[in-house]
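Hello,

Our lab assistant flagged a job as stuck in the queue for most of the afternoon. It eventually completed. Since we weren't sure the result was trustworthy after the delay, we are filing this so someone can double-check. Below is the sequence as submitted and the structure that was eventually returned. Let us know if re-running is recommended.
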Amino acid sequence: MNGFRCLPLVLVLLMLSVDAFAVKRDYGLVPQQVAPGTYVLLGFNEHFNFRNGGNIVNTGFIVTDAGVVVIDTGPSRLYGEQMREAIAKVTDQPVVKVFNTHLHPDHFLGNQAFEDLPEAALAGTIEGIRQNGEMFNESLYRLCGPWEAGTRVVVPGLVVTPGVEEVGGHRLRLIGYDGHTDADLAILDETTGVLFAGDLVFHGRAPTTPHADIGRWLASLDALAGLSFSVLVPGHGAVSTNDDPIRQTRDYLVWLRDGLKRGAEQGSDMAELLSPREPPASIRRLAVFAAEYQRSVAHLFPAFERAAIERGRVVQELD
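-- returned structure --
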């Protein structure tokens, strides 16, 4: 009988905990102005989890005389909806266009909230979302749970052609790069000097590498560093007024590449490399470094290992 008397209390507590969690499904998006008419919504330098709901990404928008241009839409339908609400608190101008910088889910799964509008991306990004979008959506649901409820993959319908696009008095230079993925879009607003670099640039956080080609990525970073900009918006981490985030990302990738190459040439196996060998302090203190480094070993080391084996085979044949 005592158990039955406790049952109503258990149900009440359960309902309260569910309600409390429902209240927490607020991303708390606060646009931060970084230039005239230009705003950024900063994510946490963390991994996806039930607490942050996948809000680990920087998204942004530009208020022009012809309407609002959105750059990336976040990790879920809910994020996209709350992003539109946040934009409406800043301006009465309607959203007129959306850009996705690349195929990773925290940058495009909010598209559903903007599917009444033109959504654009590089051709490689569109194809990547078409092929992998559902897998990404399922993965984020496992990582973030109810935050992803009702999220549906919406593939951008417009192919970005690199070049200049004029929107309401803003001259947007659309630049196609690669390296972080097969297609990475950077957007330089030549009117304000703001560079939206997407995930080609991380700041204060270890880069992610599931689709990376380090050599091509480094070449893209060199090209970004040659652009004339006054404000740099990385895909993750704090906004900067200099190219420090580019150098930081470059330093990490060079250190990662050299360590994996050296390990492969010395005959190390993957398990031996999972613990990094004395990383510099500047790299060791990056957010989520340990976990991202281990993921990068899994992503990238097999290719370095194959290359080392092939080089050894060629040397033997020459001998």
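-- support follow-up --
The delay was a queue issue, not a problem with the job. The result is valid. The longest strand covers residues 194-202. Residues 23-242 form a domain with the Metallo-beta-lactamase; Chain A fold (CATH 3.60.15.10).
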